[in-house]
Automatic annotation (TrEMBL):
The keyword Lipid metabolism does not apply. One of its GO terms (biological process) is endocytosis. GO terms for cellular component: plasma membrane; recycling endosome membrane. This is EH domain-containing protein 1. It is found in: Cell projection, Cilium membrane; Early endosome membrane; Recycling endosome membrane. Pfam families: DUF5600 (PF18150), EH (PF12763), EHD_N (PF16880). InterPro entries: DUF5600 (IPR040990), EF-hand-dom_pair (IPR011992), EF_Hand_1_Ca_BS (IPR018247), EF_hand_dom (IPR002048), EH_dom (IPR000261), EHD_N (IPR031692), P-loop_NTPase (IPR027417). Homooligomer, and heterooligomer with EHD2, EHD3 and EHD4, ATP-binding is required for heterooligomerization. Interacts (via EH domain) with MICALL1 (via NPF1 motif); the interaction is direct and recruits EHD1 to membranes. Interacts with RAB35; the interaction is indirect through MICALL1 and recruits EHD1 to membranes. Interacts (via EH domain) with PACSIN2 (via NPF motifs); regulates localization to tubular recycling endosome membranes. Interacts with PACSIN1. Interacts with RAB8A. Interacts with FER1L5 (via second C2 domain). Interacts with MYOF. Interacts with ZFYVE20. The lineage of its organism: Eukaryota, Metazoa, Chordata, Craniata, Vertebrata. One of its GO terms (molecular function) is calcium ion binding. CDD domains: EH. It comes from the Eukaryota.
Length: 423
C-alpha cells in the first residue's frame, strides 16, 4: 500500500551522478539554481544567465590599469610614479566585487625609486587599495619592473626576482585551479540568488493590493536597509552575501513591484540541498581531477623558451646574459681567464680541483656557493676543469658577485661550445 510514495521518496534521495566537475556544475546550475534565478528575475538585477561556455572555457587573464602603467608589456596595474586611483578606475575595481580572490595587484617600475621611497610608495598603495577592495585578507601586491630593460636601481634585485617568480607561478597555476574557482563562483552566485529571492519576496509581501502602490514603493526603496537587516536576522544570512544597497535601490526604482513573486520555499530548498550535498560531492571530484593533472600549467607563447618564463627573458643580466646571442657569452672575457688558467699548472689541458680552488677562493664567496659553481662548471663531470670550464666558473663567480642568483641547472647558452655535443 502506498508503494508509489516510498518509491518517489527514494528517487529524491538518490545523489546526482556526474562524470566531470564541469558537467556537474552545468547540470546543477540548470536544474537547481536557474529556476530560482528566473522566478525572481535575478538576471535583471545582477548578471545574465550562465551558458555552457561559462563552465567549459579555459581560464583567462584580464589586464586592467591606468595609462602608461605597462599593460602592453605583460600585466601591470600601478606605476610606482603614478599611484593615484582615478574615479573611473576606482569604479572598475569596485565592479569586481565578490571576485577579490581573483585580483592580482602589480606595482611596476619599482626599480626607478630608492628603497626608502619604495617602502613609502608601497604603504600608500596599500592604503589606497584598502579603501576600494574590502576583503578580510590583505590584497597581494607583486613588486618589480616587468619589462626587458636593465634595472635602473638594482638595490632590490633579489626582491624583484622573487616577486616575479611568485607571480609567474601564480599565473601558471590557473589551469590547475580552474575547476575549484568555478565551483566557488557557483557557490557565491547561489548565495546571492537566495538573498535576492528573500529581498524580492519581502518587497512583494509589503505591497498593497490596490491603492497607494507608488508611495509604498518609494517607502520600501528608501527603507531597503531595514529590510536587509530583517532578512539577515530572520534567515541567519551573512551581511557579505547581500548586494550593494545603493545599487539595489537604483535598480528597484524602475521595477514594477506588482510583478514580483512571493516566497516559494521549494525553490529555496532545492538550492539549499545543492549547497549542502551536491557541492560537497563535487568538491571531492575537484581534488580527484587535480590529482590526475599535477603538471597542468600555462604553456606556449611567452611562457616557453626560457627557464624563467617571460620575466627572465631579455634582462641581459646575471645567468640570463647572452641568452639570445649567437656567440658564447663567456667568450668575451675568456682571454683574461686563460691567462690565469695557464698559471695553475694544467696537465693535458686541464687543472685539478685543488689548483682551481686556490684561485676560486680569492672571490671570498662561501664554500657552499663555490661548490655549486664547481658543479655547474664541471660540465663533463670528470673532476677537472679545462680552459672553457674554468672560464665558465669565473663567469659564474662574476654573476654571483654582482648580486645575481645562480641557476639550478646550467642554461644551454652557458654550456661551453666544445661540450655542447655532449648534451
Amino acid at each position: 500500500m502506498f508503494s508509489w510514495v516510498s518509491k518517489d521518496a527514494r528517487r529524491k534521495k538518490e545523489p546526482e551522478l556526474f562524470q566531470t566537475v564541469a558537467e556537474g556544475l552545468r547540470q546543477l546550475y540548470a536544474q537547481k539554481l536557474l529556476p530560482l534565478e528566473e522566478h525572481y528575475r535575478f538576471h535583471e538585477f545582477h548578471s545574465p544567465a550562465l551558458e555552457d561556455a561559462d563552465f567549459d572555457n579555459k581560464p583567462m587573464v584580464l589586464l586592467v590599469g591606468q595609462y602608461s602603467t605597462g599593460k602592453t608589456t605583460f600585466i601591470l596595474l600601478f606605476d610606482a610614479h603614478k599611484l593615484d586611483i582615478s574615479d573611473e578606475f576606482s569604479e572598475v575595481i569596485k565592479a569586481l566585487k565578490n571576485h577579490e580572490d581573483k585580483i592580482r595587484v602589480v606595482l611596476n617600475k619599482a626599480d626607478q625609486i630608492e628603497t626608502q621611497q619604495l617602502m613609502r610608495v608601497y604603504g600608500a598603495l596599500m592604503w589606497s587599495l584598502g579603501k576600494i577592495i574590502n576583503t578580510p585578507e590583505v590584497v597581494r601586491v607583486y613588486i618589480g619592473s616587468f619589462w626587458s630593460h636593465p634595472l635602473l636601481i638594482p638595490d632590490n634585485r633579489k626582491l624583484f626576482e622573487a616577486e616575479e617568480q611568485d607571480l609567474f607561478k601564480d599565473i601558471q597555476s590557473l589551469p590547475r585551479n580552474a575547476a575549484l574557482r568555478k565551483l566557488n563562483d557557483l557557490i557565491k552566485r547561489a548565495r546571492l540568488a537566495k538573498v535576492h529571492a528573500y529581498i524580492i519576496s519581502s518587497l512583494k509581501k509589503e505591497m498593497p493590493n490596490v491603492f497607494g502602490k507608488e508611495s509604498k514603493k518609494k517607502e520600501l526603496v528608501n527603507n531597503l536597509g531595514e529590510i536587509y537587516a530583517k532578512i539577515e536576522r530572520e534567515h541567519q544570512i551573512s551581511a557579505g552575501d547581500f548586494p550593494s544597497l545603493r545599487k539595489m535601490q537604483e535598480l528597484l526604482q524602475t521595477q514594477d513591484f506588482s510583478k514580483f513573486q512571493a516566497l516559494k520555499p521549494k525553490l529555496l530548498d532545492t538550492v539549499d540541498d545543492m549547497l549542502a550535498n551536491d557541492i560537497a560531492r563535487l568538491m571531492v571530484m575537484v581534488r580527484q581531477e587535480e590529482s590526475l593533472m599535477p603538471s597542468q600549467a600555462v604553456k606556449g607563447g611567452a611562457f616557453d623558451g626560457t627557464m624563467n618564463g617571460p620575466f627572465g627573458h631579455g634582462y641581459g643580466e646575471g645567468a640570463g646574459e647572452g641568452i639570445d646571442d649567437i656567440e658564447w657569452v663567456v667568450g668575451k672575457d675568456k682571454p683574461t681567464y686563460d691567462e690565469i688558467f695557464y698559471t695553475l699548472s694544467p696537465v693535458n689541458g686541464k687543472i685539478t680541483g685543488a689548483n682551481a680552488k686556490k684561485e676560486m677562493v680569492k672571490s671570498k664567496l662561501p664554500n657552499t656557493v663555490l661548490g655549486k659553481i664547481w658543479k655547474l662548471a664541471d660540465v663533463d663531470k670528470d673532476g677537472l676543469l679545462d680552459d672553457e670550464e674554468f672560464a665558465l666558473a669565473n663567469h659564474l663567480i662574476k654573476v654571483k658577485l654582482e648580486g645575481h642568483e645562480l641557476p639550478t641547472d646550467l642554461p644551454p647558452h652557458l654550456i661551453p661550445p666544445s661540450k655542447r655535443r655532449l648534451e
